[in-house]
Amino acid sequence: MPDYPTRTARLLSRIHELGAISEDATGATVTRTFGTPAFLKGRDLVQGWFEAAGLETRLDGIGNLRGRLRSQRPGAKTFVLASHIDTVVNAGKYDGPLGVLMGLDLVESIIQQRLELPFNLELIAFSDEEGVRFHTTYLGSKVVTGAFEPALLQKTDANGITLAQAIAEMGGNAATLAADALPPAEWLGYFELHIEQGPVLWESGVPVALVTDIAGQQRVELTWLGMAGHAGTVPMDMRQDALAAAAEFVLATEAFALRHGHGLVATVGQLRLVHAASNIIPGQVVHSLDLRSPDADQLAAAYTDLQAQAEAIAARRGVGLTWQLVQATAPVQCDHELNRLLGQAIAASGYEVDGLVSGAGHDAVPASAVAPATMAFIRCYKGISHNPLENVEAADVAAALEVAERFLLELKNAHE
User: Fold this and answer.
1) Averaged pLDDT for residues 241-268
2) Separation between Cα atoms, residue 346 and residue 22, nearest integer Å
3) Which domains does the chain have, with CATH numbers?
4) Which of the four pLDDT bands, split at 50, 70 and 90, describes residue 1?
5) What is the pTM of this model?
6) Which single residue of 108, 220, 279, 391 has CA 20 to 30 Å from 165?
7) Are strands 320-329 and 120-126 parallel, antiparallel or unpaired?
8) Cβ–Cβ < 8 Å for 347, 353
C-alpha cells in the first residue's frame, strides 16, 4: 500500500528547501521572479531532483525545466503534468512549486513501481506564469503550447532589459522558442495540481476538488489626465482633479461588481499618481482594472459597461481618459472526460466530489487551447495565497497525492 504520509514528508521538505531560495537576502519572504539569480538557483535545485528521479531532463529556450518519462508504445502521445516555479513578490512557498513537486513525486512512484504507461509523461516546471517581471502571464506555457508571440521579446522590465536579453542572460535561446512547442497532434492532455487560493475547501474541510472552469480575464490600464495646480489657490469648483475622477471610477467599479455578482469580480490593484505631492492637485493618474468571470458574455458586458462609465466620469469632470486593454483571456471549461476520471479518483479515495471554478488564471489556460486540460485544487490555509502566510496541511497533501495517483492510473487504464 502506498505510504502517502512518508512521501508527503519528503515532498514538503523539498518545498521548504526550495522556499529558502529567494531574492530577499534576509530569507524572510519568498521572491523568485523570472530570470533572476534566485530563480536560476531554485530551478537548478529542482533540475537536480528531476535528474535524480531518472527523467530525461532539459531546459528549453524560455527556461522551462522539462523532464520526460518515455513510453515504450510506438507513436505514444504525451500527457503533461505541470505547474510553475516562479513567484510573485513577497510570496508563499506553495503557489506553483507544490504542483511541480507533487508531479515529481508521482513520476518517481511510477518509475519505482516499473509501471509501463501507454503515453509519454512530461513533467514541466514553467519558468514564468505570474508575469511579474515583464507583466506578461504564461510565458512558459505559451512556448510549450505554441502560443508565444515573438513581439513579446521586445517587452522591457523595470530596468529597461528586454525579454530577449533576459532569455540570453539566463542561458536560454529565443531562436528556439517555436521549435520548443509540443505539437498539438502529440498532446494527450494536461493536468495541474495547485493550491485553491480561496477559502472554499478550507471552510468545508474537503482536502481536494476538481476544477470545472477557469475564469476569463480582462486587464485594462486607465490613464486620467486632468490639470495639475496649486492645492491652496484653485477653487474646488474649478478643478480638473485626475485622482478624484479615478476615485469615483474605483467606487463605481466596486458597486457594479457587487450588483452584478454571481461569478464576476472587479479589482483596481495598482494606482500611480504622476508627480505626486501633498500640495498639488493630481494632474495625471494611472491605474489598473482587473475583471474576471467564468461567463464570457458577463465578462464582455462588464467590460463595455465600465468603459462607458469611465468615459462618462471623464466627460463630467473635464478630464482626459485613455482606456487601454492590456490582456484578454477567455474563460476555460475543463475537459469533461478528464474531469470524469478525476471525479472517480476523488470518490475512490473516499472524498466528496466537489467542483470549483478558479478565479485565478493558470497555465491550464493556454494548455486548454491545444489539449484536453484539467486541474485539481488542494485545500490551503484559510485560502491565503500570494502571501508569506500561504500554507498547507500534510494530511491534505497526502490526500491529493492519493487522488492524483489514482487519476493517472485511471488514465492509464483508459488508454490501454
Assistant:
1) 95
2) 35
3) 4-215+331-414 (3.40.630.10), 216-329 (3.30.70.360)
4) low
5) 0.89
6) 220
7) unpaired
8) yes
